């Protein structure tokens, strides 16, 4: 192993050890608790997750408890987190864990990936953060941005995952992966032309080993378009996604009759759009339609 890699590992782990946040999901190695946290944190800020994470686990502390609950109750508890389909995915996953694994999450990558609603990121996060595996790199948009800049080039999907897996130091799976996520979220941030923020290279513990930084941060930024790096979310205001969210919020209170559907979704003058988007909620398992087309949360 090169001295440069050893120095980078030491610098990043020391940085993380000195500044890591005290978050509840970092104080547990319970696989179910880790899974709940990871699904809640996808595309949702930590501040919004904190109050709901512990409340959720207080009510459903195990996959078995979650599986026994109506999916509508899980969707109701998801209020404020957005991307409500994740609640349905978590419930489906819990039921599969109970049916196929006696209530305990699998301990292999293939076993986790076979569960409904569990993708490559979440499966590796469970292995790294619950089992402290040093065989998997947790590759979210933040870690992927760090790796592309370290390499100084855009990475293809298999390259990015291989780089993430290969970067984990022996015996440091938990700390290393947490450090990579934090580094990308707080220091190795995306460039924002005309806006504040952007990468804070002078504060980066790994800057001496970052090809892009050492080369003077030339354009194009290698992170742009690299595998795993988000290209930014689409506009939310006025989107179908906003209408979906409004309808789920309304359903958390009471069933919605057909005559009130368009108003509940914020499109009182466009009932055809409301009907079309509402059908996607039914298809995703977030709502069910009665015989008279009244929508309600699933039981």
Could you characterize what this model shows?
The chain is mainly alpha-helical and 299 residues long. It folds into three domains: 1-18 and 139-168 and 179-233, Endonuclease Iii, domain 2, CATH 1.10.1670; 30-130, Hypothetical protein, domain 2 (Endonuclease III, domain 1, Orthogonal Bundle); 240-296, Arc Repressor Mutant, subunit A, CATH 1.10.10. Helix content is 53%, strand content 1%. The chain contains 15 helices and two strands. Helix 2 (31-41) runs antiparallel to helix 3 (46-59) and helix 5 (71-77) crosses helix 6 (85-101). The N and C termini lie far apart (55 Å).
The parts where pLDDT drops under 50 for at least 5 residues are: none
Query: What structural class do helix, strand and pairing data support?
Result: mainly alpha
Biggest sheet architecture? 2 strands, antiparallel
CATH topology of the largest domain: Endonuclease Iii, domain 2
Give the number of DSSP strands. 2
**Biggest sheet strand line-up:** 1-2
Fraction of residues in H or I helices = 40-55%
What is the name of the CATH class of the largest domain?
Answer: Mainly Alpha
Determine the N-to-C terminus distance.
55 Å
Q: Give the rounded overall mean pLDDT.
A: 95
Instruction: Give Rg in angstroms.
Output: 21 Å
CATH superfamily of the largest domain: Helix-hairpin-Helix base-excision DNA repair enzymes (C-terminal)
Strand content: under 5%
CATH architecture tag of the largest domain: Orthogonal Bundle
Q: Give the number of helices.
A: 15
Taken together, the total number of domains comes to 3
Any idea what the shape is?
Answer: globular
Query: Secondary-structure element order, as H and E?
Result: HHHHHHHHHHHHHHHEE
